[in-house]
Each structure stands twice: as structure tokens, then as C-alpha cells.
Design a protein that fits this description.
Layout: E1 2-8, H1 13-23, E2 29-36, H2 41-48, E3 53-55, H3 62-74, E4 80-83, H4 92-96, E5 102-106, H5 118-124, E6 129-136, E7 146-153, H6 160-184, H7 189-204
Parallel strand pairs: 1-2, 1-4, 2-3, 4-5
Antiparallel strand pairs: 5-6, 6-7
Helix pairs in contact: 1-6
Length: 205
């Protein structure tokens, strides 16, 4: 069974869904700790469920803060780190400590609409469809290898909140599928990590 550390920054709705799936045995994983950069709803959900938590408030410089939160994560010896609505960028050195076993969900069909406002950007662009993606975190912004993604239509009367809620439903399913694949061996993160390193070498040449 996979040991998961989950990082959150907000209300924790996606984390709450993941927790329900793991505890119901629908995802072969256990959430062993939840961390955040601030006190938030996700931390409260974890505490109510009896899961160890930690909060490492952001303070510059980013590299030093990133190392502190990476140390907190590493103390739990997770198999996979899941960023679930975590809104801070970790330093490349901190990411490298867990790569390729750090995953993130993103509310767009990457490489379309990367960044913190993927849903808003899709609406502003007049897109008729967007999507959801699960990726391996790398040192860029939503640039890591894509493990799973699915299209989501944009409806004519969609608000940002409406569209985001529909995307979240897909994000949750995709994350559960990816974690199940890692757990049963059908997804090998090491292969994706090798692919990522080769891509970097080619870019450097």
C-alpha cells in the first residue's frame, strides 16, 4: 500500500475525496500526513480524521522555506507526495528530493492553460473545452510529464466556479486512477523520471 503525504493550501475538497477513496479501499494507499503552507480547511479535515499534520508558513527566501517543508515531508518517508491544491512553488532542489514521486493535479488539459489560473484563462480565451491533468512535478510551472488527462467541455453559461467544480470531479477520478496504477505497478514512475531526465539533457545540448 502506498504511503502518501498530501500538501494542501485551501479548503481541501480534493484531498477529502482522496481520503474517502483510500479509506474505502478504492485506492491502494494510505494518507500518512498532510502538510500546508498555512492553516486551512485541508489541515482541519486531516486533524479531524486523526492524520498527522504540519504547517510550514511561507517566508522568504523560497529556497530555504522549500528545504524546510521538504524536510517535514521526508520525515514521514512517503512513497508518493501529492500536491492537492497546494499553491506554492517549491524550489528545484526540493522537488528533486522526491522526483519523480511528487504528483500534482491541474485544472486544464496541459500544456494548455498552465499556471495558477487555468480555469479563468480557459474562459478568457473563449475555449469550448478545457480539461484536467495529473502530472509529475518538475522544476517548471505545470511542465512535468503527464500521467493522465481528460477533456471537460466549457458550457455557454459557465462561470469560473461552475467550470472549476466540474473539472474537480475529473481531477479526483484521474488522481485516483493514477495512484491505483502506481500501486498495482501498471504505472512506473521511474520510467517517467528517466524520460524527464533525458528531456532535460536534450534541452541542455
Amino acid at each position: 500500500m502506498l504511503r502518501l503525504v498530501v500538501l494542501v493550501s485551501g479548503g481541501g475538497s480534493n484531498f477529502s475525496d482522496l481520503l474517502r477513496r483510500t479509506r474505502a479501499g478504492r485506492v491502494p494507499a494510505e494518507v500518512i500526513a498532510v502538510g500546508a503552507d498555512r492553516e486551512c480547511g485541508g489541515i482541519e479535515i486531516a486533524q479531524a480524521a486523526g492524520i498527522p499534520t504540519f504547517v510550514e508558513p511561507f517566508a522568504p527566501p523560497r529556497d530555504a522555506w522549500s528545504e524546510r517543508i521538504a524536510d517535514r515531508i521526508a520525515a514521514f518517508e512517503p512513497d508518493v507526495v501529492v500536491l492537492s491544491g497546494f499553491m506554492r512553488l517549491l524550489s528545484p532542489a526540493a522537488v528533486a528530493r522526491f522526483e519523480p514521486a511528487m504528483l500534482n493535479t491541474h485544472p486544464a488539459f496541459l500544456p494548455e492553460f498552465p499556471g495558477a489560473h487555468g480555469v479563468r484563462d480557459a474562459l478568457a480565451a473563449g475555449a469550448t473545452e478545457t480539461g484536467a491533468s495529473v502530472i509529475i512535478v518538475d522544476s517548471g510551472v505545470d511542465t512535468g510529464p503527464i500521467l493522465a488527462q481528460r477533456r471537460v467541455p466549457v458550457l455557454p453559461d459557465d462561470t469560473e466556479a461552475d467550470l472549476h467544480e466540474r473539472i474537480k470531479l475529473v481531477e479526483r477520478e484521474l488522481l485516483a486512477d493514477v495512484l491505483t496504477g502506481i500501486g498495482d505497478g501498471s504505472i512506473d514512475l521511474a520510467d517517467h523520471g528517466l524520460e524527464q531526465r533525458l528531456d532535460r539533457q536534450e534541452e541542455a545540448q
